[in-house]
Fold:
Amino acid sequence: MIDPRQPRKVLRFKAKPGKGDELFALCAKLSDESDATDKVIIARAEDDPDTLWAMEFFKSDEALAAQDADPRWEELHAQIGALMEEDFTLALVRAYYAHF
Structure:
């Protein structure tokens, strides 16, 4: 079942050359530490292991807002930024259809 009220983030990360494994490991670790999400999918482009795509499913709008306002995450995002070749792409989305 998909709940269109559940907020999500879709992100694209482009790591510095050869830093894809390190960026993937850090993103996975931070996803495990998040109390705001209940599901996270991190994928890598088959033709470019330094490009990651992530979809974060947040428990609620309030949980998303609390995490975004938490200053601890600024430092963690800076660690991610240090591994990136370019700024990440972010879209806040709501899902209205899924087929499993």
